[in-house]
Write a structure and sequence with these properties.
Pnp Oxidase, Chain A, UbiD C-terminal domain-like, 9-stranded antiparallel β-sheet, 24 strands
């Protein structure tokens, strides 16, 4: 008879289980293995930076630690698409479809709550975070970080469950300090608990499947995130009962850290290499006290290198959210892309069927409404490859007139991690002037002037060519 742990493992797919991701990558020739021993302090990240954008990397031997480390899972869109079984441009639409299904029917797919699961195959006797191969990535990072783990918490009043990702610094063997960006649901939960003078229990889930990990980055879903993750995975992803807190953990996680966010306590956190390519500053921030650690028998630790992987992680989810919101109001919208140069947060390129005067300006305004972190929106025609920066730049050069096609939105809400955003005095927000570029063919001009040059389609394999 199979145990519950075995049953969960048998049901694993790349969308629900990191181990299944690694197996699928290996089978497709999409995994790089680093077999040399590497230090988790600077060296691991230094190697990863050299390989960034190629294939995910598994570091088999991490100095001073028993567990391998995976990074780069999202930094190549084609590789991610292979795990979904779709073309790269379709991944955001898979996410959007999952959100749409949930919005139409918010009844959750019932998830099992297991006592025994892969994630608690081993229950550690003591509490020692230093046994985990937490890396120090950038040269001025303030310490060792968890930066890809899902923090699962219950709303103190409703009991609803939210999952979110935060940068979390190990400060002692049983203590963590972490950042909560303004407007996050976890910040709301902590504020309620602090008003009551209570600690907020959480589980920190490291090494989960693609579905819960990607959905955790989606804005404004709140307690709907677990249900959307189920829709994306195509089945209910099982939970596991925690050992010491009344909050579930993902049954398929590689490691689970059970903790409490201490009310009214703030300790130093940072600096940390952020998505912008700059360091997020050091300040006194929220604190977790660790109560228990569980893990798989042979776990793999998951970390993210700030850069292309974060840009794609945000891009996949934000593109889906933006497309759903803007296409709902303007059906001519065909696709949305958040390019790497915008750090996945700050720039969107929107492809549109150019059917009427003023549609570019309408799309710009609706896109800014759909994703508040954006600082620049470029709108292009359907003949422009929005994934090709050169093609987008060509459209701006040949179809954009700043005198009529530039939209300026002064002093709008900005994302606090971007250093160009002017911070409010309380440090909880900031403002920045935003820009929209309507690079559509001018509707009142002779469109024949804007006909693109085309050449005959040929297959080079039909020809005898010496390279």
């Amino acid at each position: 008879m199979k145990t519950k742990r075995q049953s969960v493992a048998d049901e694993a797919t790349p969308l629900t289980d990191l181990g299944a991701c690694i197996a699928a990558l290996e089978a497709a020739g999409n995994l790089i293995r680093v077999r040399s021993e590497v230090s988790p302090r600077f060296e691991l990240a230094g190697i990863a930076r050299q390989l960034e954008g190629t294939k995910p990397v598994l570091f088999e031997r991490v100095k001073g630690h028993a567990y391998p480390v995976l990074t780069g899972l999202l930094w190549n869109r084609a590789v991610v698409a292979s795990l979904f079984g779709v073309a790269p441009e379709k991944v955001p639409f898979c996410i959007a479809a999952a959100v749409g299904k949930w919005q139409k029917n918010k009844a959750a797919l019932p998830s099992r709550l297991l006592e025994a699961a892969p994630a608690n195959e081993v229950v550690e006797d003591g509490i020692d975070l230093s046994m985990l191969p937490l890396p120090v990535h950038a040269l001025k990072d303030g310490g060792r970080y968890l930066d890809s783990s899902l923090v699962v918490a219950r709303h103190p009043e409703t009991g609803g469950i939210n999952a979110s990702i935060h940068r979390i610094q190990m400060t002692r063997k049983d203590r963590l300090s972490f950042l909560i960006d303004p407007g996050r649901h976890l910040g709301e939960y902590v504020a309620i608990a602090e008003r009551r003078g209570e600690a907020l229990p959480v589980t920190i889930n490291n090494g989960v499947g693609l579905a819960p990990w990607l959905v955790a980055s989606l804005p404004r879903l709140g307690e709907g995130k677990p249900a959307v993750a189920n829709r994306l995975a195509g089945r209910a992803i099982p939970w596991m009962r925690a050992q010491s807190v009344d909050v579930p953990a993902y049954a398929d996680a590689q490691f689970v850290i059970e903790a409490e966010i201490l009310p009214g306590v703030r300790e130093w956190e940072g600096p940390f290499a952020e998505v912008t390519g700059y360091y997020g500053g050091r300040d006194k921030r929220w604190v977790m006290k660790v109560k228990k650690i569980t893990r798989r028998g042979e776990p793999v630790f998951h970390t993210v290198l700030s850069g292309m992987e974060v840009w794609n992680a945000v891009g996949f989810t934000a593109e889906a959210a933006i497309f759903g919101a803007v296409h709902g109001r303007i059906p001519e919208v065909r696709a949305v892309y958040l390019p790497p140069g915008g750090c996945g947060f700050y720039q969107a390129v929107v492809q549109v069927a150019n059917t009427r005067p003023g549609i570019g300006r309408d799309v710009i305004n609706e896109t800014f409404k759909a994703f508040r972190s954006l600082q620049r929106v470029v709108v292009v025609d359907s003949d422009v490859n929005l994934y090709d920066a050169t093609d987008v730049d060509w459209a701006i050069t040949t179809r954009f007139d700043p005198d009529t096609d530039l939209v300026i939105l002064p002093r709008q809400e900005g994302h606090i991690l971007n250093p160009i955003v002017e911070q409010d005095a309380d440090g909880k927000g900031g403002t920045v002037t935003k820009m929209g570029i309507d690079a559509l063919i001018p509707f009142d001009r002779d469109r024949a002037q804007f006909t693109r040059v085309k050449f005959k389609e040929v297959d080079l394999s039909d020809y005898d060519i010496a390279f």
